[in-house]
Design a protein that fits this description.
globular, Non-ribosomal Peptide Synthetase Peptidyl Carrier Protein, Chain A, 315 residues, binds flavin mononucleotide
Length: 315
């Protein structure tokens, strides 16, 4: 069976990797892409808004679902729902740093209770046939780096892969992702695949991470925002094929395509809200992108947003 984790993977991004985002990503064929995380409890209860976050189409394959929660009893049923929805892999979130999530021991809160990680993973593995992975931060803080230990525990519990973000929970997004923690996981891994994550914004950085850490795959998060083509660029660079830089017009075209997908999938109000963040992603390298964002956040109609994007000049 093909291993989805040796690949260029697009991350779960709460509030961002929604259906239109993934429809854009699918055009450039990442090796695997994830939906936004869903909490185990509302998933098991069948809450419609939670289930809607798992909408996908066949072009988005291979596709992963990510569950977040710390209750071993819910883990198996939640993983099974992901499998029944036809997902190719299921991942456990052990990295989310938000207080609201960690306060019941979920997300990066799991890094304080490694036995629980083993139990939750084992229950997921027992419940499904699809590959199970987990996504961690290096540890809760610098004094408690647990990435290599979690790699061993997850491997023993039957996980196929571990995704390692080289920052601690305490760091949030301050300072760089420490790739040495990814390397430490590679060194203890026997069968389990190790996927490196953190600060991959260019094709060059993805190649460098593989070289420096020996990781099997790479997972890109913020670097996919406004750059749905980054997988294509990494593959081209790895194959030493020439890379044509995308100019302003190509980025504007992509933004318009993303907007159209958002309008098609969401309500008018939903698409308007979406554009407040999305328009900035695609044009972030232009000097007056902030101005566009400001105007887009006050727009009251889709026509107004179209007008703003069409009328936007690069400098
Ligand atoms: C807006 C946003 C939402 C995120 N949502 C999730 C999520 O749902 N699940 C998860 O495991 N990580 C989530 N992350 C973390 C990323 O997947 C990734 O681990 C982190 O951003 C570091 O990678 P990067 O440097 O490539 O951005 C999120 C990050 C951001 C910025």
């Amino acid at each position: 069976m093909k291993n989805f984790y040796d690949e260029i993977i697009y991350a779960p991004l709460a509030g961002c990797s929604d259906y239109p985002f993934r429809a854009m990503s699918a055009r450039y064929k990442p090796g695997l892409m994830f939906c936004e995380m869903v909490k185990m409890e509302p998933l098991v209860r069948g809450i419609p808004n939670t289930l809607r976050m798992l909408d996908y189409n066949e072009a988005m394959r291979p596709i992963g679902g990510q569950i977040c929660g710390s209750d071993p009893k819910l883990a198996g049923p939640a993983a099974r729902i992901i499998e029944e929805h036809g997902f190719d892999v299921v991942d456990l979130n052990c990295g989310c740093p938000v207080d609201k999530v960690t306060k019941d021991g979920s997300g990066s809160g799991m890094l304080k209770d490694l036995d629980r990680i083993g139990e939750v993973i084992a229950n997921m593995v027992a419940a499904v046939k699809i590959p199970v992975s987990l996504k961690i931060r290096a540890g809760w803080d610098e004094e408690n780096i647990v990435a290599a230990e979690v790699t061993r525990i997850a491997e023993k519990a039957g996980a196929t892969a571990i995704v390692v973000h080289g920052r601690t929970r305490k760091q949030a997004y301050k300072g760089p992702s420490n790739w040495d923690h990814i390397k430490a996981c590679v060194e203890v891994a026997q069968k389990i695949k190790v996927v490196g994550n953190g600060d991959l914004f260019t094709p060059e950085s993805a190649i460098a991470m593989r070289e420096q850490t020996g990781c099997d795959g790479v997972l890109i998060a913020r670097g996919t925002m406004g750059q749905p083509w980054i997988a294509e660029e990494i593959r081209a660079l790895a194959a030493k094929e020439p890379l044509a830089p995308r100019n302003f017009e190509a980025c504007r075209e992509a933004l318009l395509d993303h907007f159209a997908l958002s309008v098609e999938y969401k309500s008018k109000q939903g698409a308007l809200i979406d554009m407040r963040k999305v328009c900035c992603w695609y044009l972030k390298n232009t000097p007056n992108a902030r101005e566009l964002r400001k105007k887009a956040s006050h727009a009251t109609s889709l026509e107004e947003v179209y007008g703003l994007i069409h009328g936007f000049a690069s400098a």
